[in-house]
Model the fold of this input.
Amino acid sequence: MRKLFLLFVTLSFCFFGLSQSLLAQKKMKVVTTLGYLKYVTEQVGGDRVEVMALANPKQDPHYVTPTPRMNEVANGADFFIENGLSLDLWAKNVVDASGNPRIQPGNPGHLVATINVPVKELPTEISRAWGDIHPQGNPHVWLDPLNVRIIAENIANRLKQLDPPGSDYYQKQLDDFKYRLDVALYGEELMKIVGKKAGDILTRKTRNDELMDWLVSRKLDGKLGGWMRIGSRIAGQKIVSYHKTYIYFADRFGLNIVGELEEKPGIPPPPQYRDAVVELIKREGVKAILNDNFYSTEAADYVASKTGAKVVITYLDVGGAEEVETYEKLVSFLLDRIAQAFSS
Amino acid sequence: MRHKFLIVFAGVFWVTGQVSLMAQAPPDSAGKRIEDLHKELDEVKQEIADLKNLQSAIPQNQDDELDRLEGRLDQRLRELENKIDAISRANAPIVFNPRTTAFINVAARADDKTVYDSQGQTEIQNRPFLRTVELDLRAPVDPFAEAVAIISLEDEAGKGFGIDAEEAYGLIKRIPALETAPLGMKIKVGKFRAPLGVDNKLHMHDLPWITRPLVVSKYLGTEHGEFFESGFNPIGIDFEFFLPNPIPSSTLEMNFDLLRAGDLGLSQGTSGKQPAYLAHLNWSRDWENVHLLTLGLSAYREDGSPSTYLYSADITYKWSPIEHRDIHSFVMGGEIFLGRTVVRNEVDLNHDGVPGLIQDVTNKPLGWFAYAQYQLSWWVYLGARYEVVDEPTNDRLNTKALSGYLSYYTTEFLRFRLGVEHRITDLPEHRSVTSGLFEINFVFGSHPTEPYWVSR
Done:
């Protein structure tokens, strides 16, 4: 009897230990609206999270139709992340229909990732007469890598709040990710020369438009590498985009957007407006038209045929194609494609 | 500059000192001392080089740097003030007010024969109507619930307007005592469009057609016929939840409703003391947000006089390409309804004023519709619908209709629609009628994005 009791106790402890171990390995389920948020969350959350994005990265993030599958996926989420800024408005429908109290706005399990990100194009007049404008400013913030640093910090902070035992882990993951971004942005050599706080110093200088002056004054301009180096080669070049998608990207890399194919945001260009764009491109000497993969190329092709400008098919979200399966690849892809258009 | 000067000054001072010391040293050791000095000079040069490198990492002129910093802070302050202003202008006065959306639906018809409303009293052919004006108000109540009120002003077949609470309900999203909602349960309490099929849940301005399908109008409820707003929006409570599903990548949802009986079109409003029950099962699967297939089953029961049962099945398929999305898309679907009403009649066989026999009269009307819609361009959609329906009170009388329509959207907020319908019926008023239909729909306000555009 005593042996039986000991066996029972031993098995109980084994079972308890196993269950604790399984619980410890249980990953936090994170649902994001967009592919880039999934990627950033994976980088910051590492092994402690399991992330799923609702939108197909090939589709227009403005016009995603919520489906019952999305609602059910959100029902099982511990943490829901959206871009905000009136881009993924459909997220509200999903959160509402999920029946998941944890991810409702106002709870720690719900995050608008772009909080604290400096937003451009805040409208002073808000009216539908201006088309599908975004009342809180242009929402395509992630195309500036400096904003992704802030977004990653926001996600990491919330992960720490939701999973306190993983705080140190998330901080290290965040630091590693920011370092990878900084190396991609400025090049490894410059990062090493500037030293331990290089990422923060260079980010501050870049955000204040002082980077080149600062580097020249220290004779470090020759050491600049990465995306900023590529960007310096195309800086000042004039482009036209289909939608106001590339404001942040252009500002970061010095491109000059002289106009859009859309006369008003969210409304396809009417035929008469296309001719106005043709005149604009001829007058300004524009060589490249950026056309997101989810927009028709009809208008861009027409304008290109009249002007000789090159149509560059672009992807907006991480995972939209094999070439853009990571955020770093997405930025590299955009820079390379635009540089190619100018070189040809 | 200050650092550079100090470094050079220190270097010169040190070298001068060494040279002075060398001058005082005995001549025989001069060679060795010079060699040592060269070494030390090299070390100093190295130190100067290191200091220059260090200098490059610190501000050259701290005063200038402070000025620039102040300028930047001023600029940032201005940007923040502008941002606060813009956000304040956008939100402050209405921040806790319900989100408000208004809908205006205007329609006109031209017919080759006289057409009456469903009550058979009012002629409605060859004239325009302001069919509905709807005001949609919604906002969170507290962390646990949200409320929706949709007030509509409806055209009563040209004889005036009636005000109706199209929907008014509270949606409980979280039970305070529970941290999680079992099976994702959501509870809706109030007056709402019941989940009896798919079409009934849509408001008139969301329909992909100009008129309701006949079967929805006749079986679920109408005051003035399918040309005007109709459908089943009773008072009750709705429980919506997910069900475990053995089929991968698909979703199974269930609604169970407890309703006030008597509002259903099929029961002709003659019962109502007993509760009614409604269950709706919905299975759906989507493929990469490109294809969506939905299958649904509904069952409704109310006891009373007449006892009414209504069963329905629905299917919807959508194809909406996500790349070059503004070129084409396709939607097709249909719904079938089978009703059963049992009226208990007391028959006076002997004509003595005392009922001698109780006789049940059963009616089993059947109705269905099927439709397809193709997107021709970003703005233009072309569609067709075919429908067959038995009369709710007499399943031997039947109506068939075929209609086609062309929709033009300037944006998702403004739609023009042109349609034609040919109808053949057993009803005695007229055997056939052909109608031309026209509709304009305006949506304005701080509305959500969905579902104004049925195929996007």
Q: What stands out?
A: Residues 2-25 of chain A form the longest helix (24 residues). Chain A touches chain B through 57 residues (CB under 8 Å). Confidence is low (pLDDT under 50) at residues 13-23 of chain A. The longest strand of chain A covers residues 28-32.
